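Appendix B, record 7
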Amino acid sequence: MRVTEVREFGGPEVLVVGEAPEPVAGPGQVLVAVAAVDTIFVETQVRGGWGREYFPLTLPYVPGGGITGVVRATGEGVDPAWTGRRVAVSLGHTGGYAEFAVASADALVSVPDQVSLTDAAALVHDGVTAAKLLEVTGLRVGEQVLVMGASGGMGTVLVQLAKAAGARVVGVARGDRKTDLVRELGADAVIDAARPDWVEAARTALGDAGADVVLDGVGGHVGVAAFALTAAGGRFSAHGAPTGGFAPVDPDEAAARGVRLLGIQDVQMSAEEHTDLVARALRAAADRTLRPVIGATFPLERAAAAHEAIESRTLLGKVVITV
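Structure tokens (predicted):
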């Protein structure tokens, strides 16, 4: 079967197309003919050698942790009725950039007929993490939430889910195309991060009290600037690091203001919870309360171009690889 793998850490060019034996479903597993693969920013960072303390991968490896496709075969102990069904499933961190993948039957989620496999792939990670973020931050009806990186794959979902939860949403994105999209998705106010005075503009949009919840998917010095917009007694989630690192917020300053700090470790979840949240995201997409935003799709052979597109930060929403 065709695969795209990382044989050394480095730029997008280290993604190499090759051949590998077709896997076989073992006990409790299914074989999935892959249709689409979720592609997230952190995968480009891991490919480049970042985050080995979080992702201890051994070279070579096949990237891609979230897939959709059709069950081709079932292993021992698995209901054969799964065969032929459209599914979404998380593989963990690897194995998706391939024609076929083996997955745990316990992790399978049926994709509703109203949702394409490409759209479903866009929600396997971001739909789940976004829902978990709103849960751990305890966002309540009537509160104000500031969404950093609001036009990205995660940001677009957060804007929609926070609005559906009854919050007042202020989104921050860069450039007219991105800010227009965030506004279209329902944000009550949108700030252009390209403005030199974006912090002041966001403060005006939020009012004197500030944001009850800040969801920082950007990190670095931008995230630190967003922290200053958190209301006293509010919650600040530093879960994104596309700038090269999570926002280095001073915990003593946070404590002095009564701000609860959360990080990527706070959105870890059990396999069962992950599966439940995937199902919830797909139901929301099916009833049109959640719209996956896909900026571009790339075939498996052009996975390197997909990573380049993500790193360019010029696209709206998600990048999905199709097989």
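Remarks on this record: The mean pLDDT is 94. The first strand starts at residue 2 and ends at 6.
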